[in-house]
Amino acid sequence: MECVFGMVGNGFALVVADTSAVHSILVHKSNEDKIMILDSHKLMGASGEPGDRVQFTEYIQKNVALYQFRNGIPLTTAAAANFTRGELATALRKNPYSVNILLAGYDKETGPSLYYIDYIATLHKVDKGAFGYGSYFSLAMMDRHYRKDMTVEEAIDLADKCIVEIRSRLVIAPPNFVIKIVDQNGAREYAWRESISDAPAPPPETA
Question: Among 1, 38, 64, 74, which residue has the least CB neighbours within 10 Å?
Fold first, then answer.
């Protein structure tokens, strides 16, 4: 029941993901951050098998950092997307990763961009995209309300509409979501949308 979606606005890109860590019928935690900050101006939202998602996104993050250390310049968003797609394609013939990715970034020359990369190494540059069961509702909302010249406030309002729709229409809807933004000022966490929070650990019993 994972939900990851994103869009490109006027001078920024935004990625939203649910924060539920689920296995079978069990919810292990509801504050799992599924959007990794790759570097100062890139975000990677991922869905899929938890082990594959964590291992692959960390692998990409470290290789993006390694490229910058070796060459003194960061990868562009397009280059990072093509590198990610290449690694998924290589793994597909050996030990495939069950992970779907929305890669958002901001480059001085080209501005914001969003790339859709699925588990069989399909790569597309998109203005809006989504993965998971929530994509049925978030894509419908974005088809109706999305504009390329949206401000941050308008995009956040649209993201909130998508979250409300997912929560109200999906049978087993994730309760919490995290929103992250990347623009000329860098990649950063913008807000959380929480309807429940993990219960605090009980205090230790005293003898």
Answer: 1
Residue 172: the pLDDT is 83
| pLDDT in the model for residue 206 | 65
Across 181-198, average pLDDT: 86
Using the predicted structure, report yes or no on whether residue 177 has a pLDDT greater than 80: yes
* C-beta separation of 18 from 35 below 8 A: no
3-state secondary structure 103-115: EEEEECCCEEEEE
* 3 state DSSP class of 194: coil
Contacts of 203 (CB under 8 A, 6+ apart): none
For residues 118 and 89, give the distance between their C-alpha atoms in angstroms, rounded to a whole number: 10
Alpha carbon distance 75, 83 (integer Å): 9
For residue 93, the Cα-to-chain-centroid distance in whole angstroms is: 25
The neighbour count for residue 3, using CB atoms within 10 Å, is 28
Work out the number of other CB atoms within 10 angstroms of the CB of residue 207: 2
pLDDT value, residue 202: 62
Nearest-angstrom CA–CA distance, 174 and 176: 6
List pLDDT tens digits, range 111-143.
999 999 999 999 999 999 999 898 999 999 999
140's CB contacts (< 8 A; 6+ apart) are: 165
Q: Rounded to whole angstroms, how far apart are CA atoms 56 and 36?
A: 11
Residues in the chain, overall count: 207
